């Protein structure tokens, strides 16, 4: 079983992503959801995910900052950026 964590600040979108992940492939289990990057980091040690799906634009900590912290502390975790914007432009 592949353990998945979702980080998304909009609850309806988070529920939709969770349903899609679990529905599409029985190999994936969503073990945790967080509403921002700070909460996500706190839950990683508890949930022990194999994969983290994260939004980019979130309060408290951006998805980009979250990914950097995950890669630094948990290099074995696979990270995937999700976005839901029609007009999307990102400049670091």
Radius of gyration: 12 Å
Oligomer state equals single chain
CATH superfamily: Response regulator
The share of residues in extended strands comes to: 25-35%
Largest sheet: 4 strands, parallel
N-to-C SSE series?
EHEHEHE
* Total count of helical runs of at least 4 residues: 3
CATH architecture: 3-Layer(aba) Sandwich
Helix-residue proportion:
25-40%
CATH class type = Alpha Beta
Overall strand count: 4
Mean pLDDT: 87
Low-pLDDT stretches: none
Number of domains: 1
Q: Give the strand order, joined by hyphens, for the main sheet.
A: 2-1-3-4
Q: Helices and strands: which structural class?
A: alpha/beta
Distance between the termini: 34 Å
Task: Describe what this molecule looks like in 3D.
The protein has 92 residues and is of the alpha/beta class. It has one domain (2-82): Rossmann fold (3-Layer(aba) Sandwich). The protein contains three helices and four strands. It has helices at residues 11-24, 37-47, 63-73, and strands at 2-7, 28-34, 51-55, 78-82. It has a four-stranded parallel beta sheet with strand order 2-1-3-4, with helices on both faces. The longest helix has 14 residues, at 11-24. The protein is globular. The model has no long low-confidence stretch (mean pLDDT 87).
């Amino acid at each position: 079983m592949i353990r998945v964590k979702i980080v998304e600040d909009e609850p309806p979108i988070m529920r939709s992503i969770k349903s899609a992940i679990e529905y599409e492939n029985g190999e994936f289990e969503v073990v945790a959801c967080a509403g921002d990057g700070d909460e996500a980091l706190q839950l990683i040690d508890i949930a022990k995910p194999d994969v983290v799906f994260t939004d980019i634009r979130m309060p408290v900590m951006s998805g980009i900052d979250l990914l950097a912290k995950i890669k630094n502390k948990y290099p074995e975790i696979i990270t995937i950026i999700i976005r839901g914007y029609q007009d999307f432009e990102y400049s670091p």
